[in-house]
Amino acid sequence: MTKGIIYYTDNRLNEPIFSAVQEQISKIGLPIASCSLKPLNFGKNIVLALEPGPTTMVKQILAALKASEAKSVFFCEHDVLYHPSHFEFIPLRKDVFYYNTNVWRWDYRGDKVITYDHFRSLSGLCVSKEKAIDHYEKRLKIIYDMGYERLPTAGNPGWARKMGYEPGKPKRNGGISDDIIEEWRSGYPNVDIRHKRTMTPIKMTLESFRHKPTGWQESTIDKLPGWDLKELFNL
Questions:
Q1: What 3-state class would DSSP assign to 136?
Q2: Residue closest to 194 by CA, chosen among 83, 101, 111, 99
Q3: Angle made by CA atoms 167, 63, 52, in degrees to the nearest 5
Q4: What is the pLDDT of residues 79-107, one digit of tens each?
Q5: For residue range 151-162, what is the model confidence (pLDDT) as tens digits?
Q6: Residues 195/108, Cβ–Cβ less than 8 Å
Q7: Across residues 214-230, what is the average pLDDT?
Q8: Domains and CATH numbers, the chain
Q9: Residue 41: count of CB within 10 angstroms of its CB
Q10: What CA–CA distance (Å, rounded) separates 165 from 178?
Q11: Helix (H) and strand (E) counts in the chain
Q12: pTM of this prediction?
């Protein structure tokens, strides 16, 4: 199998987002390896009896990667709506982390959506499975070496914040290794849904960013190309 999907969830996401995202991913037709904290009827499912948190998420990603039979994988998260055009991308190199930056962030409490230049997110990653496994095994070792897994879920020490969630961050900026990153833009955007249980801050205003992104845009859900979110969520 050339391309596949890995999906990971902490099973704490409320409806209708939880089911809507899975239904959207199911339409794509690619093989799915999922890892959850409770049994889930979604692709090839692996269950880890762990508490939710950053370290658990790394373990889930590794479990899903190792269960996948694909050569290249798309990372899919439980609160991101993926447009079919996202999965048309074909990675040309095995040593590159590819990020789809055509993403709009939606505050689920209202109609507002935002985007900006170089919107790189783990949920938009496509990469060689072997490259991803190598990265996450290194990441998990660092977590154990630094004792991060013993910290409370809400505790993020400085080194962990610098390391971030996205593979490919340079060592000089706190990353794990100096890997190659490339960006692409799908024909239509993905929708990153921000809600009460997101692991990272919602950040729906330019003022909420410490380092201001360029190309800031604001719009509303009824104007997103390729989507009818009001119909999808009966809003």
A1: helix
A2: 111
A3: 80
A4: 999 999 999 999 999 999 999 999 999 99
A5: 544 556 665 666
A6: yes
A7: 96
A8: 3-138+180-232 (3.90.550)
A9: 7
A10: 15
A11: 5, 12
A12: 0.91
